[in-house]
Amino acid sequence: MLESESKGHARNWADEKEETKRLRSEILLIRDDKLLVKNFAELFSSEPVSIIVGPSKKSFTIHIDSLRRESTYFKEILSTKTSEDGPFVLDGEEHNIDAFEMFVEYCYFGTYFSSKHDEPHLLLLHARVYALAEKLRCLPLKAIALKKATEWSYGDSTRPEGSLLLSIVANLVEAIRVVYTYTEDSGDGFILHRPIPSDPSGSLEITRDRFRLLLAKLAGMHLNALKNLGEFVKVHHKFADFNTDMLLFIRNAVGKPKVSTSEFRNTLADGQDEAIQLRKNDVSASSRFFNTDTLGVFVGKQAKRFDVHISAVECAEFFKRLMTSAMMESRDKAVDLTSEIDTPDAFERLICPGLKKLAHEKARMICEHAHAGKPDEVLLTIPAAVTLVYENTYDNHNTKLLEPLSNDQQDATNEASNSANGGATATEGPPKGKTDAQTEATNRDSFRVPLSQFASFYISQLRTQEPFNSAHHRFTSFATDLMSLATAGTKLELGSDGQLKL
């Protein structure tokens, strides 16, 4: 009997050992997270190593095998390192202490928990974990951080009491800064798995960074409120990748002006009559042009020569100052408009307000006519127009960031002019309480305004054009102007895989 009991105990002990071994390698359910923990005890058999993290130099002691197993970065760095070599230091800005704590949890448990962090701060936490995981080259942790951020975002968007996002704009802005600074995505501005435009076969595809798209989607959803907040406008202006991604998730401006063809023709005729009358008034004085010396003006890369009378070109402040100066061009009666003299530091182009106003009026008429008819031909020229205008005109940068454009607020010269304290409608004459210098600083470039306004009504068409996306990405001032005129995108939806539905 003792022998049978002994055999029974032996079997029970063997079964227990097998069961314990099995449990160590099976999936454990803890809270709502699924943990895949294999050979958990073996993690503690390796040598511990000290890691100093962040500016505050917080110390973490972690078993070296867990680091090597989960992070390709640590696998390479710690391949020959032991505890005798002293602590390993991670002092870069991307090495956030909260995020690194989550990484440590992941090393031991296969996931991370955020119970000690308040609900409003979770999006930023997941963004920091995601950026750190990219730095440490830990793809599974990136996937977990993205999943948690997506679930948080969807839950926030469906919250019965309303979204928290607008109450934590600082966190959203910081999440955008972190992700767009410390992650890379060569396909910014393109939808996930969209065929590469330069590949006619369509066999090559662009794979997008999903966390970037998630942040761009969130910003697009709440655009109507965010575009009036200076801290958001600044981060939008700073990160070209972000504002180009966000272009995918915003909608056309509303309130497109309706101008009939007959109205356009009447306006055009009025402009022609005005020009004819102007020429008649100047005929009597035209003889004075021929009583002055000629000036040789060489224009463009081909250096095409124009011989013009000095009196004729003195309508431009550039030439007036030049010809009264002691510069070589004044002595030689020759100007090369491709030289360094034609820079903002010199005379800010030709400085000819009359010509600028005329060009602005003609462009406005073209846009109005396009609204009334078919805009496709004009839309094809938008990328080139953006490049010309935003590369060669100058606008008060700080004022623009605080005073975004508005389709329904214009001053007496058809230039948008919102106040920094909320966008009060501009009136003729200087605003009360402002000096002349302050009034001048709030003026917007007259051509940028109608160009951005016209493009804002056709965002859904323009964003499918590679040249437009390229111009939008290159000129962040244009991107910010366009964003301030657009309307919010659709609500966030998840696909069958639990990820953001595009």
TrEMBL record:
Residue ranges, compositional bias (Polar residues): 409-424
InterPro entries: BTB/POZ_dom, SKP1/BTB/POZ_sf
PANTHER family linked to this entry: BTB DOMAIN-CONTAINING PROTEIN (PTHR47843:SF3), BTB DOMAIN-CONTAINING PROTEIN-RELATED (PTHR47843)
Organism: Orbilia oligospora (Nematode-trapping fungus)
Domain BTB per the UniProt entry, residue ranges: 47-116
PROSITE patterns the record matches: BTB
Pfam families named in the record: BTB
Coiled-coil residue spans: none
This protein's name: BTB domain-containing protein
Start-end of Basic and acidic residues biased regions: 431-445
Region (Disordered): 409-445
